[in-house]
Design goal:
- The protein contains nine helices and two strands.
- With 216 residues, the protein is an all-alpha fold.
- The chain has a two-stranded antiparallel sheet with strand order 1-2.
- Strand 1 and strand 2 form a beta hairpin.
- Helix 3 runs antiparallel to helix 4, helix 4 packs across helix 7 and helix 6 packs across helix 9.
- The chain starts with a helix and ends in a 5-residue tail after the last helix.
Length: 216
């Protein structure tokens, strides 16, 4: 069975992250919180409550301006799962009913930390950094459970740290991504950039409407 992590690490280096999207002008404010709206879809109230609590922690941490670390992702993963602590997985991981395998090698945890630190590289446009961090979580699959939800949190952390809010997150968080698809990874960066740009336009239209004089 192919190792999706090894495939992703190879594909990750093929993508021109600095050039795939332009830099965004920040800050970007949203009329609504797209991640919170996505998190409340469905009937699993405890899962929603845990995810929103973890997201609140992400927002507070992003406001402090610190760079992402494995300790942070472990804390957020534990929060969204409702467990005391989360540790890096100790063996191969599987997803999609066992169809996808994510290997564990001697340097996997070190590589994870290195990739996570790249989310703070200001030379790469923030939409590309956020998309890359999301995919890193998906394919490193660092914890025993909750990696998909964690990926969304980490992506938003990168954006919020740069002063970017999204009023829509559902299209980003519900599309299945493949480790062997460089165009799909670049497309995710474009999607994040496009939603951020549209969020800004909607905010500006709303602000402009609020400033219009009322006709007697």
């Amino acid at each position: 069975m192919p190792d999706q992590l090894t495939i992703w690490q190879r594909v990750r280096e093929q993508i021109p992250w600095r050039d795939v999207v332009p830099h965004l002008r920040t800050p970007i404010r949203a009329l609504r919180d797209g991640f919170a709206a996505h998190a409340t879809i469905g009937d699993h109230q405890r899962r929603q409550s845990l995810l929103l609590a973890a997201y609140n922690e992400v927002r507070c941490t992003a406001a402090s301006g610190v760079s992402p670390t494995p300790d942070m992702t472990a804390r957020w993963n534990a929060m969204l799962r409702g467990i005391p602590a989360a540790s890096f997985r100790r063996g191969p991981a599987f997803a999609k009913n066992g169809r996808d395998r994510y290997g564990l090698h001697a340097d996997t945890q070190q590589r994870y930390e290195s990739c996570l630190s790249e989310a703070a590289d200001l030379m790469v446009p923030v939409a590309a950094r956020a998309a890359r961090a999301y995919l890193d979580i998906a394919f490193f699959h660092p914890y025993d459970d909750g990696n998909a939800r964690l990926g969304g949190l980490v992506m938003h952390f990168v954006l919020l740290r740069a002063g970017i809010e999204l009023d829509e997150a559902h299209p980003i968080l519900t599309t299945v991504r493949r480790a062997d698809d460089p165009e799909g990874a670049a497309g995710l960066a474009r999607l994040v950039h496009g939603i951020a740009t549209a969020t800004h336009r909607r905010w500006l239209r709303s602000a402009s409407s609020d400033r219009q004089p009322t006709t007697p």
